[in-house]
Design goal:
This protein is mainly α. The protein has 4 helices and no strands. The radius of gyration is 15 Å and the shape is elongated. The chain starts with 9 loop residues before the first helix and ends with a helix.
Length: 124
């Protein structure tokens, strides 16, 4: 088993995640019918995680920062759902999707943790 070193910075990590989502969607685009619709949804959601994280760091207030991260978390949750759906429907072999799903789960935990810490700092 190869250990993949993930970037420490959440902006870099979600950027890399979005890149992997794009590559997965390129594979799905070669499919017929409803899978292409799912690919479009997955593309929008998976790439918006990083876009909202990036946007959060450009905000000028703590509530805006928290709001953008909350949106990133929501999008990551929905991305996770669609990745699990791809596995369950056997659209692609599980081995082709599982690493991406695991990374999505880790990103969700990190983003949730950032939200919690920021809320705690705001209350102080």
């Amino acid at each position: 088993m190869q250990i993949i070193e993930r970037p420490f910075d959440i902006k870099d990590r979600t950027f890399d995640f979005g890149t992997q989502i794009i590559k997965l969607c390129q594979l799905l685009e070669n499919s017929q019918g409803s899978i292409r619709l799912l690919s479009s949804q997955l593309f929008r959601l998976g790439t918006s995680v990083g876009a909202n994280v990036e946007e959060a760091y450009g905000t000028s207030t703590d509530p805006d920062f928290i709001s953008k991260f909350a949106i990133a978390l929501k999008e990551a949750r929905e991305t996770s759902f669609w990745l699990r759906q791809l596995i369950a429907a056997e659209v692609l072999p599980k081995e082709e999707v599982i690493e991406l799903l695991q990374e999505c789960e880790e990103i969700k935990k990190i983003v949730a943790s950032i939200i919690i810490k920021k809320k705690q700092n705001v209350r102080k």
